[in-house]
Amino acid sequence: MKDAGGLWQVPKLYWVNSYFLAPNMQMEYQKWCKSSGAKAIRDKFEKQTGIKYINTYWKVLGFGDYDCEDWFELPNWAAMDKIRDAMSIMEQLYKETWKMMDMTREGKNRVVRTTEDVMVPNPPE
């Protein structure tokens, strides 16, 4: 896909990780999300994988299937493989957040693109 100046643009990919929080842990998790420790983990993760943290989104007034969603921008599909190389960072993340997560309920991961970037196939004739 080319921009208005004729330069090739890499279509953006977004990784969305949806999950539930443990009962009565919302305030503690919100505090952690805003902490310098959380920022340091996200920065290390981006440096090692190229995957950029965008934000954590919370459901409001019960609207939504999950308590929270973390959104990340992927530079390309290959960045997902780099997560294997970042296991020490993931272990640090789990160590700090595990007790705040509801591990008895299954979360969901998905990769999405914007309307401008997605390729929709034509149906066969």
Spell out the key features of this protein:
about 120 residues, alpha+beta, four-stranded antiparallel β-sheet, 4 helices, about 30% helix, about 25% strand, globular
Backbone shape: globular
Number of strands: 4
Strand order of the largest sheet: 2-3-1-4
Number of helices: 4
What is the H-and-E element order? EHHEEHHE
**What's the rounded overall pLDDT mean?**
91
Helix/strand structural class: alpha+beta
Distance between the termini: 26 Å
As residue ranges, the low-confidence spans are none
Percent of residues in beta strands = 25-35%
Residues in helix, %: 25-40%
Radius of gyration, in Å, reads 17 Å
Commentary on this structure:
30% of the residues lie in helices and 26% in strands. With 125 residues, it is of the alpha+beta class. The protein has a domain of 83 residues. A 4-stranded antiparallel sheet has the order 2-3-1-4, covered by helices on one side. The chain contains 4 helices and 4 strands.
How would you summarize the topology of this molecule?
Elements: E1 13-19, H1 26-33, H2 36-49, E2 52-60, E3 63-74, H3 79-82, H4 87-97, E4 108-112
Antiparallel strand pairs: 1-3, 1-4, 2-3
Helix pairs in contact: 2-4
Question: In a few lines, what is going on in this structure?
Answer:
Helix content is 30%, strand content 26%. The protein has helices at residues 26-33, 36-49, 79-82, 87-97; strands at 13-19, 52-60, 63-74, 108-112.
